[in-house]
Amino acid sequence: MGTYAITGSASGMGAAAVARLRADGHTVLTVDIKDADVVADLSTADGRADAAAQVLAACAGRLDGAVLAAGLGPSEGADRLRLIGAVNYLGVVDLLTRWRPALAVAQNAKVVVVGSNSTTTTPAVPNRAVRALLAGDVDRALRAVRLYGPGKPAMMYAASKIAVTRWARRTAVLPEWAGAGIRLNVLAPGAVMTPLLQEQLDNKRQARFVEKFPVPVGGYGEPDLLARWMCFLLSDAADFVCGSVIFVDGGTDALFRGDDWPRPVPVRRIGRYVRRFLGRS
Ligand code: NAD
């Protein structure tokens, strides 16, 4: 039996993952802004540092895995844009950076970052916002989306998920991660019926958009369905999965991008990747 840390554990997909892991007999350390073993606000630097330290103390320096599910959806509200950037990006990157040594101790740890299919289905996301988040600068990302009017929350949300997905893919392959036995992957859900989605459906303007969003298989996902994929990615079945993005979205990504992927690596980039892999750049 293993010891797992789950953020966003109080609700939705995170809560469903906690229930499954506990039912299987694992020890789960829950992290959330409410109703958790570790109550912390992941939108603040102090909250993230405190959450990371409390989990490390509780697991005695060894983690078999983690699910980073805490997040805010693209709804409107005071300070919402900043919270989206801080929780969805820094709330993943800061914790995982601090937990990496404990994950390495387990030797075959698995990590699931919850991304989103908004990464590939939201048009015209400003790259400047993505780059700002990857640099850890939420204020600069806010400036990059400021001209998008009522589309600002959707832009900030997609930018936060693109940034965290890119961070995960860049990080997963590094010697300190892949080479330390850690398998870091991204689960990209489509619309899943949780309080986060309900918040959007409760807003007339957003509901129109969500309800019209094309889902080839129809309907919404259920949190437990996604939790099953999280548990799969935490299992030995993921030993050879590294830096992958798994879309569980009823087919929307395939519908929007059927011909975009797979795409061969451009010749001019091969040297860069090989040098990076060999540690010479
Ligand atoms: P949810 O609202 O049910 O759960 C999110 C959890 O994050 C809540 O328990 C909440 O308290 C916690 N949280 C929010 N702000 C926090 C903070 N500052 N500090 C600590 N915890 C905080 O939503 P969900 O749908 O289960 O979302 C889980 C993840 O899935 C999120 O990252 C979300 O972006 C992503 N996602 C959701 C959908 C969807 O349709 N539901 C689609 C794609 C991706």
Total helical segments: 12
Report the structural category: alpha/beta
Q: Which segments are poorly predicted (pLDDT under 50) over 5 or more consecutive residues? A: none
Report the bound ligands by name, code or SMILES.
nicotinamide-adenine-dinucleotide
Instruction: Give the overall silhouette.
Output: globular
Write the CATH fold name. Rossmann fold
**Any idea what the CATH superfamily is called?**
NAD(P)-binding Rossmann-like Domain
What is the N-to-C succession of helices and strands? Answer: EHEEHEHEHHHHEHHHEHH
The percent range for helix content is 40-55%
| Widest β-sheet, arrangement of strands | 3-2-1-4-5-6-7
The CATH C-level name is Alpha Beta
Kindly state the number of beta strands. Answer: 7
* CATH architectural group: 3-Layer(aba) Sandwich
